[in-house]
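Closing statement on the aspartic acid sub-project.
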Amino acid sequence: MREQTSILIIYTGGTIGMVQDPKTMSLKPLSFDILYKYLPVLENFNYKFDFYTFRPLLDSSNMNPSFWVELAKVIEDNYETFDGFVVLHGSDTMAYTASALSFMLENLNKPVIFTGSQLPIGMVRTDGRENFINSIEIAAAHEQETPVVPEVAICFENRLYRGNRTTKFNAEHFGAFVSGNFPSLAKIGVDIRYNNELILKPNFKRLKVHKNLDDNIAILKLFPGINRNVVSSTFATPGLKAVILETFGAGNAPTVSWFLDLLKEAIDKGMILFNVTQCKGGKVDIGKYETSAGLGKIGVIGGYDITTESAVTKMMYLLGTGLPKGEVERLLQISLRGEMTV
Ligand code: ASP
């Protein structure tokens, strides 16, 4: 018989925990005790809750790798004590944090469910109450002693998504996230309908937490008219080890020689170039068009259907492992945590 299910709620900040100051009308974060007051329904759950609060609470625009490490450590320190984790986080960079945590938490066998909201919990029409309550249910869900969702996921507006497949695509709709290349892990209605074949299976190995992230990377988003100075100054960034090249469509880029020459020069100097599409669905297919074949020939690595959020955090994680360049390039092309369809 399982004991009472226990959930650790980790409050990092974001709109969900804010209220509007009636005098200034601006949004400010609430301490957890007060936030709790807005959700008396939590007392009706038959689960044991504990809380960890980031200090200071963050608007997620201020998230960075050191906070990802703090979050990973909190989960590591409490991993044996709790059955599941709910992370309250601003929606702006939630897809990045969820992607980062998916790579940092190797052999994760428990749910880590991110949620937040578009309207603060103190507002009458808030979407935060529903998102929070659904996340708790999902983090607590077990079947035959095994968690139903033993992976990092985002629960938002009646959908559960694999965290490293998501992108925030709408700043106003309650459904703020899209997972363009992977179906949702669950649909939330009267029942929570899990898509069990898609959810990662537990491997029952010991959790291994990777805390070394290397931020010597850049994103170079292509646009028609991008000029030589912009491209060359990006590659001239001191200490730069890798560039996520955000290309057009199926991984296409200009074929003009100065552009390919600059890329080749960077690769010859030891830099890793990772080709990710600007599209929210579909994949990089190097060689499909003439405009991507050249990239493949000079050694640009194709990112298939990975999101930019996942590419950035996977690169930080892989560079942080200190593995040789060839091995990092090999691992970039295989799915480590379900982040791409290969
Ligand atoms: N700016 C807020 C944040 O990301 C927006 C939100 O929570 O939805 O922290």
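The mean pLDDT is 94. With this model delivered, the sub-project is considered complete and its resources will be redirected to Aim 3.
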